[in-house]
Each structure stands twice: as structure tokens, then as C-alpha cells.
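Researcher: I'd like a candidate sequence for this fold, 398 residues long. If you have to choose between options at a position, lean toward the conservative one.
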């Protein structure tokens, strides 16, 4: 039997789904599971968006759509994304996607040649690493340094990896899994780096609107950056539309045209009637989106408070995303663990609490000594958070 391609064998996966499989198997045995492992949202999509999709279906919007997306949605995205970032975009700067994730592979497919390298965050969204390597590039991971306020990018690590073959940096402000938010100075440093070394930038802004105070900021807004930055946009978080699979790439016209060429080759077009629902979402009232954020804030506060009550846990409360990334090094060593997989599965089987380990977000970097785990609070109610964390506290402090 013939072997699979070498390229396919370089393809990774989103390992949080494997944790979900463990949790589902444990629940199937009759146990209670407290799901902190997957960044899904268990809040309903606002009704006016659902109604918009149904109206589009009834109006016959069930056939093919243009590859780059329907013009009303491209116009609406150009207006919405541009206004929030102080940039003048037009429909030509927008390529509609079936979710935010496809933007990663298509951006890399346009700008990355085999043997060239891309900087990406680690810990970070695992698809970055997967797609760079799948496309024959060299993945250059950069880490973060714990601070009293959260995490800061390891600038020294970034600079020492740069070569003349480095073509891009993936920048995920409002970062999954660690919830980090760049200071203005750190964002400017990334921009200066890109300008100095002539790098493309993929700015993953999936959590741009999931913040509990202040306003989101984009590296694309800084001088000289709009013409070299592609913004990854998704409806999943902002409008509780994770399963609808709708997003977009917004950036320089020539690069966006290349991304749309991939649309034609991969899926022909994004779902027609869901694109019309996206128009309704962008042009609709802000109140439903604000209600989503306020509920997530309640969950963040409950989870942070509960984790801070556990002896041996160190965690800061981020102002963005819906993830906490606590340092559990003391507990890990106190209880005698040597494998993070055992630490995670023991917690599941002893308490029902399901979370991801640091290893689910990229290969650990040399010199990492502290042990972290990720808690997502987007798919669990406050009473479940408090109940599950009480059980986890008893187990970890025993």
C-alpha cells in the first residue's frame, strides 16, 4: 500500500479537540464534566442574526456566491473593521472566509515559499505551527515572559531567530491561550520589527471585541502597517457564531486577491445565506454583543476568584479573550507529577474538571521551567465554574 505524502505527515491538528474527546468519554460513563477545555461559546446566537439567515434562505440565497464573498458583506466588513481601526478599507480589501481559521493557511499560501520561515507565538494557536510546516516553511516559535500584569513577548527570542529567509510574523494580540494583551509600546515594537525587516504580518484579531474595558487596538492601524498586514476576522466570538463558520481576511488588495484565489480552489465560496446573516450581524444593534461580553466577564471574574483561592495557583485576570492561563507549577511538583497528560487526566477523573495543558498549544520551548494549564470559560455557566473549582481545590490541596 502506498504511503501518505511527506507534506501530509507534517500536518498538525488542534489538540484541544483531543481533550474534548477525553471529556466526552468520561461523561459517557455517567460522570459530571466541567468543560473548561474548548473555546466554544454556549450562548445563543442573537435572534436577529438567526432571523436574517432564515430570511435569506426563504429568499433563495442558497446557491453559489462570488468567491471573494457577496458585496454587501464585503462592504460591511470594510466599514466595520476599518472604522474600529481607523483605516479606510473597501470591498477590495476583504475576502470572506468560512471561519477565521482558513485565513491562516491562505495567507501563508500566498506569501510563504518552501524553505522560508515565519515567526509565530508559542504557546499559541496550534494551527499556526501546523500550517507553516505543512506548506514547507520553517516555523520559528517565540515565547512569552510572565510579568506581574500577565505576559510579555520574548523580544530577545524573536530577534535572534530572524534571518534573510524570514518573511512574516504572526501576531496574536488578545492571545489564545494566555490572554495576553500588548502594551502600546510592545505593539509598536512589533511594527518597527516588521518595517525594519520587511515582514508580512498576520494579525489574528479573533478576540478584538472580547474585552471587558477599553477599546481594541490593531497593529494594522500603526503608520506603515496597513499595507503589510492581514487582519484575521471572525464572527465566532463577537456574535456567538462559532458553528456558523464565517470570517474574513482584510488587508492589502493584491494579497487579498491571492487569498480569494484560494477560495475558488478550496471551497468555491462561503455559505451564501450565512453571509447575509453576517450582514445583519454587522448592521444590527450592539446590545446583544454587549450582553455576550458582560456574561463572559461574569464568568471570568468567578473563575479567577476561584483559582486564586487554591493554594499553589498563580493567575492574573486578563482584560480580554475568554481564557485564563494559571501557573500550577507548585501543585504539579507537590503532587509528584512528571507528565502533564497525567496531571490533566487525573484532574478529570478525580473532579470532572477538564482543561488543556500548555503542550496543547505548541511544542514546549527550551528552558521552560514553569507549568501552565489553560481554562476556557466561554462554554460553562458561573454555577458550574464555582462547583467544579471547589472540587478541584479539594483535590489539588489534598
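Model: Candidate sequence:
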Amino acid at each position: 500500500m502506498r504511503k501518505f505524502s511527506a507534506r501530509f505527515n507534517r500536518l498538525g491538528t488542534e489538540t484541544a479537540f483531543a481533550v474534548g474527546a477525553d471529556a466526552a468519554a468520561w461523561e459517557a460513563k455517567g460522570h459530571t464534566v466541567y468543560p473548561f477545555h474548548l473555546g466554544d461559546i454556549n450562548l445563543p446566537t442573537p435572534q436577529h442574526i438567526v432571523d436574517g439567515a432564515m430570511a435569506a434562505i426563504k429568499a433563495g440565497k442558497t446557491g453559489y456566491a462570488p468567491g471573494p464573498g457577496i458585496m454587501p458583506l464585503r462592504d460591511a466588513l470594510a466599514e466595520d473593521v476599518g472604522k474600529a481601526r481607523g483605516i479606510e478599507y473597501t470591498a477590495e480589501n476583504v475576502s470572506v472566509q468560512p471561519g477565521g481559521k482558513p485565513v491562516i493557511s491562505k495567507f501563508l499560501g500566498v506569501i510563504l515559499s518552501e524553505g522560508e520561515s515565519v515567526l509565530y507565538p508559542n504557546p499559541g494557536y496550534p494551527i499556526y505551527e501546523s500550517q507553516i510546516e505543512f506548506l514547507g516553511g520553517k516555523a520559528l516559535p517565540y515565547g512569552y515572559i510572565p510579568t506581574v500584569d500577565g505576559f510579555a513577548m520574548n523580544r530577545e527570542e524573536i530577534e535572534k531567530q530572524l534571518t534573510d529567509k524570514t518573511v512574516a510574523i504572526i501576531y496574536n494580540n488578545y492571545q489564545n491561550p494566555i490572554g495576553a494583551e500588548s502594551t502600546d509600546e510592545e505593539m509598536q515594537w512589533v511594527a518597527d520589527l516588521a518595517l525594519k525587516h520587511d515582514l508580512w504580518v498576520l494579525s489574528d484579531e479573533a478576540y478584538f471585541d472580547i474585552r471587558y474595558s477599553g477599546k481594541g487596538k490593531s497593529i494594522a492601524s500603526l503608520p506603515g502597517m496597513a499595507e503589510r498586514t492581514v487582519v484575521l476576522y471572525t464572527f465566532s466570538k463577537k456574535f456567538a457564531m462559532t458553528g456558523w463558520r464565517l470570517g474574513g481576511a482584510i488587508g492589502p488588495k493584491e494579497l487579498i486577491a491571492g487569498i480569494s484565489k484560494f477560495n475558488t480552489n478550496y471551497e468555491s465560496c462561503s455559505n451564501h445565506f450565512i453571509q447575509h446573516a453576517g450582514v445583519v450581524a454587522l448592521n444590527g444593534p450592539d446590545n446583544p454583543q454587549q450582553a455576550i461580553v458582560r456574561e463572559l466577564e461574569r464568568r471570568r471574574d468567578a473563575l479567577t476568584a476561584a483559582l486564586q483561592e487554591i493554594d499553589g495557583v498563580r493567575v492574573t485576570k486578563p482584560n480580554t479573550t475568554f481564557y485564563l492561563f494559571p501557573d500550577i507549577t507548585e501543585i504539579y511538583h507537590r503532587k509528584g507529577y512528571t507528565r502533564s497528560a497525567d496531571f490533566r487526566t487525573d484532574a478529570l477523573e478525580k473532579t470532572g474538571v477538564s482543561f488543556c495543558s500548555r503542550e496543547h498549544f505548541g511544542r514546549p520551548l527550551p528552558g521552560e521551567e514553569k507549568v501552565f494549564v489553560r481554562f476556557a470559560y466561554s462554554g460553562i455557566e458561573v454555577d458550574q465554574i464555582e462547583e467544579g473549582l471547589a472540587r478541584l481545590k479539594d483535590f489539588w490541596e489534598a
